[in-house]
Fold this protein.
Amino acid sequence: MNAYVTAVNGKDLDGLVRAFAADAEIVDVGRSIRGHDAIRRWAQAEVIGGTLTVTQVAETRDGYQRLLVRFAPGGTGGFAAYYAFTVDGSSITRAELTYA
C-alpha cells in the first residue's frame, strides 16, 4: 500500500504498476481493471498527476488493509474514498476503490 501511495504522489507510473502482481485486479467503483497493461493505462489516464492523502487506516489484518483516503485528480479538489488492498508478500493482488 505504501508503494502505491508513494507512486501516486511521486507521479511514478512505473512504480505504481510495479506495486501490483502481474495478474492483479483493481475494482474501481465497480469497473474491473486486470493485469499490468490495463493497470498502466488506467493509472496513466486517471491516477498519475493526482494527489493521494491517507486520512485513516480503517482496517488492517494479515494480507489486507483498508484505507480512508482523499484523492484529488489533477492535484486539487478531490473526494473521499476507501481503498482496500489485498497483498501477497510485497505485491498488491487486488485493490478495491469505492467512494466513502
Observations:
- The domain at 2-99 is CATH 3.10.450.50 (Nuclear Transport Factor 2; Chain: A,).
- Helices lie at 2-9, 13-18, 36-46.
- The mean pLDDT is 97.
